[in-house]
Amino acid sequence: MATENTSPETPKEADQGTGMDALKAVSGQQDQKEEAAPKLDSMGRAYATGKRKDAVARVWIKRGTGKMTVNKRVANDYFQRPTLQMIIKQPFDITKSLGQYDVVATVKGGGLSGQAGALKHGISKALVNFDPQNRSPLKSNGFLTRDSRVVERKKYGKRKARRSFQFSKR
């Protein structure tokens, strides 16, 4: 009884054959960039978390009339300064979708400025989750990048983070 050998004659040839197949498979995947699908929950909402300084914003957006709710209050009542209102509307201005989405957000930590920045970051990420075509304009304007600047901690032997105690020669 003779058995038929179907494998390549040397182990080196076997390695080259599988390596080329693997390279072709990887390059084929890179050529066909699939369009990302929207990430929506069962209620048709997109969720994202935005952060800035010590503030964290949890944001849900869905198609609607442009109503914004922050911590169960109207956004213009929560953020009363015009500059903060402008900051939270910037992602909608960039994507030309002002008044097309309802926003429900809960914001914790930090001050009002940090909370507005966190809400802007969260809205931007939620818009990308809702419609992946929004990614390029938001990314080019820097809205998807988390602003990682935080307050520096106080060091021992210092009055504040870097400020020394007043020096007295006598």
Description:
By secondary structure, the chain is α+β, with helices and mostly antiparallel strands. The protein is 37% helix and 17% strand. It is built from five helices and five strands; from the N terminus they run αββββααβαα. Strands 1-2-5-3-4 form a five-stranded mixed sheet. A hairpin with a 2-residue loop joins β3 and β4. α3 packs parallel to α4. The longest helix has 21 residues. About 4% of the residues have low confidence.
Task: Summarize the amount of helix as a percent range.
Answer: 25-40%
Mean pLDDT: 85
Number of strands: 5
Distance between the termini: 106 Å
Give the uncertain stretches in residue-range form: 28-33
- The SS-based structural class is alpha+beta
Shape: elongated
Please outline the major beta sheet.
Answer: 5 strands, mixed
Strand content: 15-25%
Strand order of the largest sheet: 1-2-5-3-4
Helix count from the secondary structure assignment: 5
Radius of gyration: 26 Å
Order of helices and strands: HEEEEHHEHH
